[in-house]
């Protein structure tokens, strides 16, 4: 099942999506989802970020080739994570499908994409095990963890390098039924395929992360966990369009524009 | 003016506080605050965390003595920040005044307090300067950035060391009228004063941080910025009670309990 969060006539709602038809609900799809009786066409609404999370979790480094290739670029030895230490991103940076990633006018040129699977939590949970961890997952969407590498390496935190306004595209919608082992992440730049990898070839899988996290923290409905990326990106410039496809979910498309001086 | 967020009869509201009397409003104090007509006594309500922020910012290291003393404890040279790179904490960890900080049963023993001034944003702003930065500040509250130092140093992120459930007490209320230069932070453990410092003796002040942050990110009403702490804390154990006073705001009190095996 597919859920969209959308705006129409100055109100924002959730709805289930069948083909091009949205059936609006009141509330959130992981809560008491009551149909409002209104149906709309996908083409007549604006898609919004699928959820503003209470806490925005991000695995960061979680694929082997990404770690090897990033280390090679920097001329250092690759360091693989020893355990599932979750990281964070910031809500200010979220934008929806088709919205512009705006590169600040003074940003260095190493602006990269990172195509990621996003897990959306549907229940309040703590102390899960790997065996029952997936029971709290409501569905999945797509994230692009846009990163400026000079700021990422040079600043004390990721505040500019990863959390500049518009650097966290997420969408286009939530898909509840996926085949993780069959899924591929395919990133295209200006319509040409640039990267392809098996989405579930993670160092630490979703159930492992959730079990580790919930030993110490409570997950809440609407929390998101971005699962990291494989491979590396070219440096993106003004006018580039990046599409992150996760097979079985959809395509997250965002133009990149550099802020004018 | 003083604002509380409180629960009574299964609903949570804001109200202004005069002495012991709460005048309830609908909405949030930085929005259209309309009195509901209900008044309550402070003693008959449960105080809640003053706000669940959209993004939870934290300066981290921002006082000279804290940096020198922490470096000395670790046997390394002190490193002072070169610029105002803001960090983050996580909403799952927030608890209110008088609620228990629960130390996980397997946590190492280096559990410390960090008494902090918390800035609460009241307006949506970007591109502020140091001259007009304070115009977006709605008020102030108190935070205790509880930290387990072994996890803080050993993990790849601060997920357990600083963001374990209950590790972020915030409250008791929001004060809009303060004299920052006169303010002192006074931390007591079990009723005995343990640390005292001038709250506004920061390496990078509030206006400097807000100007730097809003060059790249939008601040939203209800966002919080924890401004860091000075000095160092003893290792806290089961049964300790920590009170963080910020003169002119109030006292944030939280018992520490270790989870039973």
Short key terms for the protein model shown above:
homodimer, 261 residues, mainly beta, SH3 type barrels, Fumarylacetoacetate hydrolase, domain 2, 12-stranded mixed sheet, 5-stranded mixed sheet, 3 helices
Structural account:
The structure is a homodimer of 261-residue chains. By secondary structure, the first copy, chain A, is mainly β. The first copy, chain A, folds into two domains: 1-48, FAH (SH3 type barrels, Roll); 49-258, Fumarylacetoacetase-like, C-terminal domain (Fumarylacetoacetate hydrolase, domain 2). The first copy, chain A, contains three helices and 19 strands. In chain A, a hairpin with a 3-residue loop joins strand 18 (241-246) and strand 19 (250-258). Chain A starts with a strand and ends with a strand. The mean pLDDT of chain A is 97. Chain A binds chain B through residues 52, 54-55, 60, 81, 83, 85-88, 90-93, 104, 126, 155-157, 159-160, 163-165, 213, 215-220, and chain B through 52, 54-55, 60, 81, 83, 85-88, 90-93, 104, 126, 155-157, 159-160, 163-165, 213, 215-220.
